[in-house]
Specification:
Blueprint (H helix, E strand, L loop, with lengths): L19 H12 L5 E8 L2 E9 L1 E2 L5 E2 L9 E2 L4 H15 L26 H5 L28 H4 L6 H17 L14 H15 L3 H13 L5 E2 L7 H8 L7 E2 L4 E2 L7 H5 L9 E3 L1 H15 L8 H8 L34 E6 L3 E6 L4 E7 L9 H18 L4
Antiparallel strand pairs: 1-2, 1-12, 3-4, 5-9, 6-9, 7-8, 10-11, 11-12
Helix pairs in contact: 1-12, 2-6, 2-7, 2-11, 10-11
Length: 410
């Protein structure tokens, strides 16, 4: 566990020392309008060496208050859910013998074999080589369903989250039924296409293997061992939905939602994850920068042979680049690919390389395996108008180069 994180994210009075170049590039991103809110954490060799938050914080009325952001404010980390939650839990299940990488996923999720998916393995879901499509707008299935339709109403019309549970259960059933019926676009193992549906399926597999819903598994198996206090799912199907909804008021808002015809505030930005109840294998986690970096640091410790969170032998399997032709993916993780990688030009250049992942909302986590650096960048770049891919890529590169320079990485 990184030193300084055992009791959760530090407040402004006990914040870890700042790396000046990192703070400067975060302030510059704020001034340039890259995002209204940005936070970053850097852990090196198990020690938190940088933590800062810059920009606007959510106010009680749902607006943003300039200059009030604290490190304790959670962001919607979007697809970082894939590594922080789903892949981490999958690695634990493999280590415990509850899951087998090269076994058919349908062994744990009966019905998944439909439409030619019977040969798809757990490994292929993790490596994005299952042959499933990149994305499907399955949230639209609620439009024609009288029970599920309320999930597509704007917040003012749909009422409290707890009261939406019947509609969310129905929309979840519709999405999962569509995934079971979804045919492959390519034979398993023949191509690598980043697939949200693949990680929705993997979430179902992990839940079956470990015997609980993803939010409960994450809380018990990831957050609790690492002492994380700022990471959670806003799960509309939880018995604690009221409390989660109140907690979510402190989360940074996301981007425009096609499904709900609103800007997401305190609910997951991803519309498919929302239709699944707010928690899914591909998206749904809210987290602070310190918590994201802490999970990354735990993976670094495992890869160095000191596994608290993940068994070192299994961590090494997950860190190995997949053999699918043209793939940059490991299992759950990505690796730097080409000169335009968001990791920039300094980090991850040693013989051991790097592992990382991006989140659509403007977040990222990268691990420099040689320098033992875990670098978390959280932003709500998509607020309020949506994503500018070229701009956030350029900013991520600039940010990571600042981290490398401040850390003495040539």
């Amino acid at each position: 566990m990184p030193r300084g994180l055992a009791t959760g994210p530090p407040g402004p009075s006990d914040m870890a020392p700042r790396l000046r170049a990192v703070a400067a590039v975060l302030e510059a991103g704020l001034a340039e309008g890259v995002a209204p809110s940005l936070a970053a954490a850097v852990v090196r060799g198990g020690e938190l060496v940088h933590l800062s938050a810059h920009g606007a914080a959510p106010a009680e009325a749902g607006a943003l208050e300039p200059g009030r952001l604290e490190p304790s404010h959670p962001f919607d980390v979007a697809s970082l859910t894939k590594v922080l939650c789903t892949a981490t839990l999958a690695a634990q299940a493999v280590a415990e013998g509850a899951l087998e990488l090269d076994a058919p996923a349908a062994r744990w999720w009966p019905g998944f074999e439909a439409a030619g998916k019977g040969a798809v393995t757990v490994r292929q879901l993790l490596a994005h080589s299952s042959g499933l499509p990149a994305w499907r707008p399955w949230f639209r299935l609620a439009v024609g369903d009288p029970v599920a339709r309320p999930v597509l109403a704007p917040a003012a019309a749909r009422g409290p989250l707890a009261g939406l549970a019947p509609a969310l259960r129905r929309s979840r059933a519709l999405v999962l039924r569509a995934l079971l019926a979804e045919p492959l676009e390519a034979p398993p193992g023949t191509r690598a296409i980043y697939s949200d549906p693949g990680f929705v399926a993997l979430g179902q597999v992990v839940e079956a293997a470990l015997g609980a819903p993803l939010p409960a598994l994450f809380a018990a198996r990831v957050a609790a061992p690492l002492g994380l206090s700022g990471s959670f799912f806003v799960d509309g199907l939880s018995a604690e939905a009221d409390a989660l909804e109140r907690r979510a008021r402190g989360c940074l808002p996301g981007g425009p939602s096609e499904a709900r015809r609103e800007v997401s505030r305190g609910t997951v930005d991803d519309d498919v994850a929302w239709a699944l109840g707010g928690a899914a294998g591909h998206a749904g986690l809210f987290a602070t920068a310190a918590d994201v970096a802490a999970v990354g640091s735990a993976w670094l410790e495992a890869l160095a042979g000191r596994g608290l969170l993940v068994d070192p032998t299994v961590a090494a399997l997950f860190a190995r680049r997949d053999g699918t032709f043209g793939s940059s993916r490991a299992l759950g993780w990505d690796t730097p690919s080409g000169p335009t990688t968001s990791l920039g030009s300094r980090l991850g250049r040693g013989p051991l390389g790097a592992l990382g992942h991006l989140g659509f909302t403007g977040c990222s986590l990268w691990l420099d395996l040689d320098e033992r650096l875990a670098v978390a960048l959280l932003t709500n770049h998509v607020h309020p108008r949506g994503v500018d891919r070229a701009r956030i890529l350029a900013y991520r590169r600039r940010f990571h180069d600042a981290v490398g320079e401040a850390s003495g990485v040539a």
